[in-house]
């Protein structure tokens, strides 16, 4: 016999109040993290300890309930913030504040008699026009270091990023990761870079862990596991006779092939080495394909119908310099066809866009594109504790996103000042006449209220009145991020206005 589950039904004003309560709970927790005086959110881990989380999207996931009427709006908001974090890399706390203020104001107008369906559509219409108006509010951009600092409030991170700002327009060029020790370390790679397994084939016991360099390196790329070099032994003899460098990269190098490399390296001293990509499965194939393209090598594999037996000097790639260190190989001056490389980069960027809902696949495609482009950097950051490290990583990623967006489309005054100016423009602009007067007025008022929410929240976090909020001119927001945040906040509020019934 199936168990029956009773459910309650909320409709009309009761449903909207339940949504508003859910949304406000999330926005209150998220809003506290906004700005330089923002704070983190603590959450319980079992019964013995607590965790600390920062950033709008991260906080939303902990606040959002799993079921019941009080969870619906918070789950809608969490999904919107996750998408914003993925696409924009910044602005999630602002989005939550604007969406909450917008929906709260709209609910008041509905309670006064405005039709919620018409108001929802009017919000989207007038909100889209308002976003366009932001274009006219651009201001001169401060220095890259100041833009980064406004986004992360971390002097070390800001200084490091300011030095590589010209590369930030390349998607995936800068990866923020946890550092090995407290502080900030920027690792720049100019050339084609790929990660390799710790076991570098051919080294003597004394060489393991050492920095290996090859000058004027020839590159052999093989998409299979090498167990025996066979006819390639003669090629190795030729390299030894002419004192040339050879880098062998394959899916695996074992048995007699590994022994041959070790024996020949001993004779050639520092001119021969074998590497295996760290990646496995299809990603290992991607690394080998990209390496072939970057260096101009012909990929040896069963799929291409080529074998070592058919190897000719023309099938080898070239690089001016190769460095193998700390699980990474960097090839400077790779000799691949630049037109073919750029074409592959564009294809990978399109692939990343198609995989935007799959973050790991998207990041992998962008990383491949950046490495093919000849520049890829790691910003290693760490704090004194686990919690401070996590916060610092989040803020550093926001700074990277802010600098990239500011470089692409310019900036507007930050700390909610551009949005406050937008509210004034909306309030004084003539009616569109596309909506009934009460509907258009309600939509305008709701958007104006939402545009003031950022300054109100910042003032609350700073413990001052909004009129006393002093912000330096160097505090700016990227125009494109601000437009996207407003559009997405309007979408969240307008979507929730269409919800008339809750089953819980």
Strand content: 15-25%
Mean pLDDT: 85
Span between termini: 23 Å
Count of helical segments? Answer: 16
SS-based class:
alpha+beta
* Poorly predicted parts: 1-6
Characterise the protein shown here:
The chain is an alpha+beta fold. Helices cover 50% and strands 18% of the residues. The chain has 16 helices and 15 strands. Strands 6-11-10-7-8-9 form a 6-stranded mixed β-sheet, sandwiched between helices. Strands 4-12-5 form a 3-stranded mixed β-sheet. The longest helix is centred in the C-terminal third of the chain and has 26 residues, at 437-462.
Looking at this protein, list some descriptive labels.
504 residues; alpha+beta; six-stranded mixed beta sheet; three-stranded mixed beta sheet; 16 helices; 15 strands; 18% strand; disordered N terminus
Secondary structure elements and pairings:
Layout: E1 9-11, H1 12-31, E2 41-45, E3 49-53, H2 56-63, H3 72-88, H4 92-111, H5 116-133, H6 144-152, H7 155-162, E4 174-178, E5 183-190, E6 192-195, E7 212-226, H8 232-242, E8 245-253, H9 255-268, E9 272-275, H10 282-295, E10 317-325, E11 328-334, H11 338-354, H12 359-372, E12 375-382, H13 386-409, E13 411-413, H14 417-428, H15 437-462, E14 476-478, H16 479-497, E15 501-503
Parallel strand pairs: 4-12, 7-8, 8-9
Antiparallel strand pairs: 1-15, 2-3, 5-12, 6-11, 7-10, 10-11, 13-14
Helix pairs in contact: 1-2, 1-3, 1-4, 2-3, 3-4, 3-16, 4-15, 4-16, 5-15, 5-16, 6-7, 6-13, 8-9, 11-12, 14-15
């Amino acid at each position: 016999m199936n168990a029956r589950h009773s459910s309650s039904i909320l409709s009309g004003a009761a449903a909207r109040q339940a949504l508003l309560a859910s949304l406000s709970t999330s926005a209150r927790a998220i809003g506290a993290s906004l700005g330089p005086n923002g704070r983190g959110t603590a959450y319980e881990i079992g019964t013995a300890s607590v965790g600390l989380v920062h950033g709008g999207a991260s906080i939303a996931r902990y606040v959002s309930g799993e079921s019941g009427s009080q969870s619906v709006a918070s789950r809608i908001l969490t999904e919107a913030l996750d998408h914003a974090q993925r696409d924009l890399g910044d602005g999630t706390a602002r989005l939550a504040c604007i969406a909450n203020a917008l929906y709260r104001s709209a609910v008041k107008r509905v309670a006064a008699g405005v039709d919620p369906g018409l108001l929802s559509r009017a919000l989207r219409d007038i909100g889209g026009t308002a976003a366009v108006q932001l274009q006219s509010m651009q201001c001169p951009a401060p220095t890259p270091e100041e833009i980064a600092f406004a986004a992360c409030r971390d002097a070390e991170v800001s200084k490091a990023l300011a030095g590589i700002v010209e590369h930030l327009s390349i998607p995936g060029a800068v990866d923020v990761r946890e550092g090995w020790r407290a502080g900030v370390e920027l690792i720049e790679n100019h050339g084609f870079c790929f990660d390799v397994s710790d076991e570098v084939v051919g080294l003597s016991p004394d060489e393991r862990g050492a920095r290996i360099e090859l000058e004027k390196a020839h590159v052999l790329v093989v998409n299979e596991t090498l167990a025996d070099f066979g006819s390639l032994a003669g090629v190795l003899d030729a390299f030894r006779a002419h004192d040339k460098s050879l880098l062998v990269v394959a899916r695996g190098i074992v048995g007699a092939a590994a022994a041959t490399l070790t024996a020949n390296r001993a004779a050639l001293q520092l001119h021969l080495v074998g590497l295996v990509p760290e990646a496995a499965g299809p990603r290992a194939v991607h690394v080998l394909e990209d390496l072939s393209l970057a260096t101009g090598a012909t990929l040896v594999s069963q799929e291409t119908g080529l074998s070592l037996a058919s190897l000719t000097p023309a099938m080898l790639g070239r690089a001016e310099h190769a460095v193998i260190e700390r699980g990474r190989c960097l090839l400077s001056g790779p000799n691949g066809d630049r037109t073919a490389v750029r074409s592959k980069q564009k294809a990978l960027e399109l692939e990343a866009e198609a995989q935007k809902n799959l973050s790991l696949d998207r990041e992998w495609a962008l990383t491949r594109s950046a490495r093919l482009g000849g520049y890829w950097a790691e910003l290693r950051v760490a704090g004194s504790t686990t919690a401070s490290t996590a916060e610092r990583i989040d803020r550093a990623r926001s700074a990277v996103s802010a600098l990239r967006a500011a470089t692409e489309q310019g900036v507007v005054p930050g700390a909610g000042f551009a949005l406050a100016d937008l509210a004034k423009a909306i309030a004084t602009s003539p009616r569109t006449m596309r909506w009934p007067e009460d509907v258009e007025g309600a939509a305008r008022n709701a958007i104006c209220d939402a545009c003031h929410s950022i300054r109100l929240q910042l003032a609350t976090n700073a413990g001052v009145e909004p009129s006393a909020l002093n912000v330096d001119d160097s505090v700016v927001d990227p125009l494109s991020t601000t437009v996207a945040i407003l559009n997405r906040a309007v979408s969240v509020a307008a979507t929730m206005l269409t919800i008339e019934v809750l089953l819980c």
